[in-house]
Queue: 4 jobs
Job 1
Amino acid sequence: MFSKAESKKLRQQFWTSFGIVFRRKWMLYDTGIKEIQLKFTFNQKIAQVSIDVLDEAPLIRAYYFEKLLSLKNILISEYLSEAIFEEEYELPEEKIISRVHVQLDNVSIHNRNQWPEAMKFLNDAMEKMEAFFVEYKDLFR
């Protein structure tokens, strides 16, 4: 078990290492659409790459999620075959968002031996997620 300080230090070390190994400016929050973000997640259980629809208004979230659903076959057949679509995804802080994601299970940010596998997964998945988003971004405007 790690203290909060130890856990924080490990997370910082992982993300710093990730940035050194995979030198690239990721789109993430700079999508040009305020309700949509691309996100990396790596915690004690999973590594995940996602497109998040963050608006608190259910109708706006539904609008953007429907657009993502309309592209589901393309995303799955051409970019990320294991993509999961969740209209109501609950974040740890109990906020509801819509999320399309891919994830690597049974990895922990606290286990340095799993970092190379998680880094490769996060890099490869985000490259594909970004490519998909850039290609179809105009449909969200």
Job 2
Amino acid sequence: MTKRRVPRPAELAEILRPKPIVLNPTDRRLAAAHTIGDLRMIARKRSPRAVFDYTDGAAELEDSLRRARQAFRSVQFHPHVLRGVSDVDTSTDILGVRSELPFAFAPTGFTRLMNHEGERAVARVAGREGIPFALSTMGTTSIEDVAAAAPDTRKWFQLYVWRDRAAGKELMDRAWAAGFDTLLLTVDTPVGGARMRDVRNGLSIPPALTLRTVLDGATRPAWWFNLLTTEPLTFASLTSWGGTVAELINKMFDPTLNFDTLDWVRESWPGKLVVKGIQNAEDAADVVEHGAEAVLVSNHGGRQLDRAPTPLELLPSVLDAVNGDAEVWLDTGILSGGDIVAAIAMGADACLVGRAFLYGLMAGGERGVQRTVDILRGELVRTMQLLGVRRIADLRPSHATLR
């Protein structure tokens, strides 16, 4: 027989500890997000379907994105024990400048479509965290306004080469004058990819008030209220546009982009040059010969050519081709701090994070972006400690392999 007793009030008080009441709804939402996946689910609930799908989706059958994420899932870590990891240094040098974390915020288009706080919010978080922020040619906040909003942030500018070369040269001049020290030249977009979610949703920029979007917006009134009561949603580098994303790319971007174009950009830009969108080792070696200080192994987040090479799997051959003559960065499929550790261990000098911070932005504006960094940093530090590694520079290929 089990002997029963009545618990004393003091005993109950020890175990009955309700969580503090959080009155602010944004803080309450973000406090419940413990992973980037959690932020994604919050973003999905709070954003119109077309907006969420623009961020979340990829090209055609989305195999490129799926494979990129699966590659990170297939990583096997090889920890060392008894290494003393009470203090972990997550800092590294990116193109000769210290970054407090081994990643930067990737350039993303239409950022104020996700949340009205947009690029300014992302750049401010980057500055507080001591990491770089990249502004897209397709951004919705001007070069000068980003510089004013985040004067202490290390800022990069991402360039698409337009048919109008004079317009591209003007953007480079403005970026350099505003204190942007690095140019990311995207070379994987001669034409727009077939992003089928956008096609099916009829996404246009700015969003059109069709019957479908009105009905969808009725369940997301906060998003529509913020869109309609803040500065109009336009491309900061274009006068106006009223079509779809694919139509814009095919009308404005230059499909004749070649190595002569790269030479022109190298001559026109006085700062550091990164070529973004490298998808084979031969191209990596070639762009370095033409003056790139870093190459970004990327398939554009799976948003251009479906079934393109998976960046993490391509990384070793690119490293061999570059042979230390330039830095090698990686993006696509990164959704955790462990993913970043794996990429760095396998040889990448840095990573770029895009969708992860956009989920945070959609979930809670600037505070959501901050939550993204907090999550990634916590996962990164914990993974390094469990691997027995105290410094980013100490990560080696022996720490992470693809199964």
Job 3
Amino acid sequence: MDYLQGITAVLAKDLQTELRSRYAINTVLAFVGASLLLILFALNAHQLSPTPKSALVWIIILFAALSSLSRSFVMETDRKTFNLLRLHSKASEVFIGKLCYNYLFTLSVNIATFLLYLFLLGMPIADGWALFLVLMLGTAGLSGIATMLAAIVSQADRKGAIFSVLSIPLLFPLILILVRTTKAALIEGFTENYLNDFWALFGYAGVTITAGILLFDFIWDE
């Protein structure tokens, strides 16, 4: 029970901080809106084939995540509260609390992005359950990588640049899997041909979150 209370306390603190400032959510939504309009009018997205249509939405989400998800730990360093967390919380409580915050934040952004993207392009949904699974697992993978890397770069001088450089190689395989599974969910419908892709998505999310929990003890001590 104390363990869950520690996780909840970290999550509640980050949610309250974001609700007060609304910096990250306003920045991300402005970026997403501008990117969608640019794609719609400059690239003639209606005329693109299914694979580019499925890829563009995740490219937007990727760069939106890179601009905001590092704040979960960077904010603690900037405000000199990192040592305070060490005094009052365990390493795993902090990591899981930050992970839950990043997951909820990213999931809300992803849902808003997909709804706006499908509305602007007039795209139907071939398989709603498959799209739900893609959003849940894709968000878990993004959040797991972002939370772990944010903890690593939080003590560095140029946090934003280092975070982006480290994130893109790790997230590149995830984006490739998400493009295929999104194509199945939106356009072709789920078939046995995509079963391995969904298992790969599940495995990627599980491995990144597990690795983050195991490695965070070493990051925490440093």
Job 4
Amino acid sequence: MECTVLASGSTGNCIYISNGRSALVVDAGLSKKEMLARIGASGGDPGLVDAILLTHEHTDHVRGADALARSLGCPLIGTGGTLTAFRSTRQAIKKIPEQICCTKGVSFTAGDFEVTPFAVSHDAAEPCGYAVRSDDLLLSIMTDTGIITTEMMEILAQSDGIVLESNHCPDMLSTGPYPEYLKRRIRSRTGHLSNTMAADCLRELNGSLHTVILSHLSEVNNTPARAFASSQEALGLDMSYIDLYVASPDIDCSCLSQTIKI
């Protein structure tokens, strides 16, 4: 299984997952044209995409979802709350693509993948993360949550690879330009994980985990170097057998990170 982060951050989020026979897109927060260009630039095949999974309805995760789904002829999949909230913003669009409702904790098949949605804590209607299985490999994606619950940790601990939010550096957020109400939202239980929280999560994980992609970094309140250093320190000696990557918020077609094998 291979994973390419096509976009990550407050300006747009999109992940392409493939096993060579089938592919999924998780979130579609760029324009259709840009997402197709990035899939191609990274060596992916849009024709393999069997479904687009939505984690929640915020614009940076769904901006181009309906257009991409129509172009690829595939369904949008999300929780009932996410799909209802998404439809409420698309009332002017006459041709809405097929939508399939999933339930947290209940696995379903999408293409060649077995997918299990799981609950996260974010200020959206019914947000979720996804555990995606292909053959004997499990990739879990958890990008927008203010806390990490026992259930989340159990899922991450079973995974071979994870895409984990490392949104902000606490010091940069505290001294940065954001107004206090926004800083409180980011720090809240329904906000975003800090570098420290992501590092604490990795410190507790063990077992089969061998690939970590830090994602959803704030362009204002974080840097890739700070996120990497925080998690690197937490992993300690485990860094010798865990591949740690950072999805930079300034990804574009000319500098797409290499596709990562899980």
